[in-house]
# Entry
Amino acid sequence: KSTLLADEDGVSEKDKAQSIAKLMSKAAKKKPKQQVKLVVAKGGNRGISGRPGGVKGKYKIVDARLKKDTRAEKRLAKKKR
# Structure
């Protein structure tokens, strides 16, 4: 496909280069998205923010309250409707 783009007449070299670069970036393998790890905050660590030890990549600190709060919000929203 890139040879067809390069051989086109009536198109500037800059446009050819841009279209080839765009084509190559689409063809490049896309990395799979990292899953967000849920880190349960327990004990004395509840109030401490910052990256917990031994966790690589994306993470989200959760605790029992968060779970209960989201359930309550859903329940209230359903009740309002």
